[in-house]
């Protein structure tokens, strides 16, 4: 897997080429999702193995294809990226918590962690391009129910790596992240370790309610920084579950607010 910083050249040019490459990327993503649902996963389902083995194959396939998709977007000039600390991701019982500035944050993280589970928004379970992959991989629907929380806890207790975006939706540009307490509650009940991943995007793109064709004047750069591990038991010992959850959520919010405020120029192109 290539994780080196991608070369950055002519950041302000080739607007129309990047617009075309972005359109091709979205088309490729949609057609790829349909092909997985109609062709690939039915073939994989015919291979021997139990339900856990089928899930493992589905997650590996999605992760591999997501990383190829990121590489395609980089090679076609849509984006550049830098990832620091990726080797710390993918441990049993690890909860990966990230902020959510862009539509493709989840593509980056699932592409980096081959067997990750992920809490995904409920609408993906009904989208014809995505419902096949999310069902086959047994990702967790973010419907806000107690069943969702219990499923996330069970996944962590079963040794899975779980990716979650505590904001529940993409960050409003220029605003600090606002975390819901559900992620902290899940971590306290099931996670062996919490690993924060700070995602910076410059210029801002693919934000909430922003159409795909409204691309910035220069190429987008993604910076993913894997932070130091957080022990959830250090917060569980501080009081009853609601109090511990609130303190952990505040700690996470402060961590991301600080990281996002620090050295914003590092995500800017020269």
Classify the fold: give the CATH topology: Glycerol-3-phosphate (1)-acyltransferase
Tally of individual domains:
1
CATH architecture: 3-Layer(aba) Sandwich
Low-confidence stretches: 4-9, 265-270
Transmembrane segments: 20-45
Pathway: Lipid metabolism
GO biological process, one term: phosphatidic acid biosynthetic process
Keywords: Acyltransferase, Membrane, Transferase, Transmembrane, Transmembrane helix
How would you summarize the topology of this molecule?
Elements: H1 15-45, H2 51-75, E1 79-84, E2 94-98, H3 105-112, E3 117-121, H4 131-136, E4 140-142, H5 146-157, E5 162-164, H6 182-190, E6 193-202, E7 220-226, H7 233-236, H8 241-261
Parallel strand pairs: 1-7, 2-5, 2-6, 3-4, 3-5
Antiparallel strand pairs: 6-7
Helix pairs in contact: 1-2, 2-3, 5-6, 6-8
């Amino acid at each position: 897997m290539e994780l080196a910083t991608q070369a950055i050249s002519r950041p302000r040019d080739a607007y129309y080429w990047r617009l075309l490459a972005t359109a091709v990327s979205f088309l490729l993503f949609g057609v790829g999702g349909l092909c997985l649902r109609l062709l690939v996963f039915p073939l994989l389902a015919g291979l021997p193995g139990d339900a856990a083995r089928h899930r493992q194959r589905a997650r590996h396939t999605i992760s591999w294809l997501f990383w190829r998709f990121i590489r395609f977007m980089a090679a076609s000039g849509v984006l550049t990226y830098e990832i620091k600390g990726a080797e710390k991701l993918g441990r049993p019982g690890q909860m990966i918590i990230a902020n959510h500035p862009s539509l493709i944050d989840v593509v980056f993280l699932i592409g980096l962690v081959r067997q990750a589970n992920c809490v995904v928004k409920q609408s993906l379970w009904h989208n014809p391009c995505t419902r096949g992959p999310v069902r086959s991989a047994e990702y967790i629907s973010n419907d806000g129910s107690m069943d969702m929380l219990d499923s996330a806890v069970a996944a962590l207790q079963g040794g899975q790596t779980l990716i979650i975006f505590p904001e529940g939706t993409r960050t409003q540009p220029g605003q600090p992240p606002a975390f819901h307490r559900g992620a902290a509650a899940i971590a306290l009940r099931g996670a062996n370790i919490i690993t924060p991943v700070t995602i910076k995007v410059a210029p801002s793109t693919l934000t909430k309610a922003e159409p795909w064709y409204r691309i910035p004047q220069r190429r987008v750069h993604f910076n993913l920084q894997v932070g130091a591990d957080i022990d959830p038991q250090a917060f569980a010992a501080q009081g009853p579950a609601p109090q511990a959850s609130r303190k952990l959520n505040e700690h996470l919010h402060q961590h991301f607010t600080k990281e996002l405020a620090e050295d914003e120029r590092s995500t800017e192109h020269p």
